[in-house]
Request: fold
Amino acid sequence: MPYRAMRESLNAVIDSLSDGMLVTDTQGKIILYNRKAETFLSMQGETALGQPFQNHIRNEVLVKLITKILTLDLPNRSEEVCLIDLGDERLRVHVNPVRNENGLLIGSVTLLHDVARLNAIDKIRSSFLSMVSHQLKSPLSSTLLQTSLILDGIVGEVNEKQRDLLQKVRTKIKGMVNLIHDILDVCFIEEGGYLAQLENLDLAEILQRTVELMQPQTQDKNIALNVTIEDRLPSITGNKSSVEAMFINLISNAIKYTPSGGRVGAVMSENANNVQIEVSDTGIGLEEEDIPRIFDKFYRVRSETTRNISGTGLGLSIVKSVVDAHYGAINVESKVGEGTTFTVLLPTGAGNLSQAADKRGR
Reply:
């Protein structure tokens, strides 16, 4: 097939994709994009070819994602994924480095997927989960309280066999109550509840309070919890309760998967226009194939070492939802038997959150 005919066929295939596709070289110049990307990004014909992508993409989050892939050139970073709003479209974005046969970076490819329909389905599901959880929360909390009163001997003496059975019942009820709280946290974040309650946040103060809250857990497992916070950190604009939930889940997750006598660390510092939070542990670590799925709802790593560790499978999903809601980024590094480090970047600028809040208000 002649070269011209092959090129026309390739362009036809690319234009037939239901996702938008944008390709740049290492200098950030656009070398290829299809009609869907043209529509999503409001580009005109082929006028953007050969020009810097920053000149034609108005979304700051997307610009940062592509810039990060082209400038950092990290060998283990294969993609960035987030949700962004472009006009009336809500898109899931994948930005991948493109490498030649020698492993050298030669550009980037960005895929844009419209998730409006999926969002509508998720909203219905979240509303249902929220309704059911609210209905279950009160009776379960009441049952937990009543079980505790019986165990404490308030309503009469309890023999050892009864105590053992009631303690098992209380443990199961506690697990159900924790699951309901996690589901309600997820629903709150996904429904945009954080947007109605934005304020300037002192992340250092929130982290210190979270660490104090976690002390009983660390003492029970004889785990050393060390915190380092850089002086004079900038504040961020965000939702206090959801950021608290993010810290609680990150640190409690580290404690949960760290054996007795281990260490958990939290380091907070400034990184360019972001506040960076690193939560590390000397725990059991993660297999490489598990890392891409740990932020999925209800996903739990199944192995002999995790068999007796309880959890809802929603903690890290909540963390990722909070990070995405605040237009941040999260990265995971882990080695089996050595531990795991979660690195979170939260932007100090208020622009994106304020725009999102204004849009929802309209």
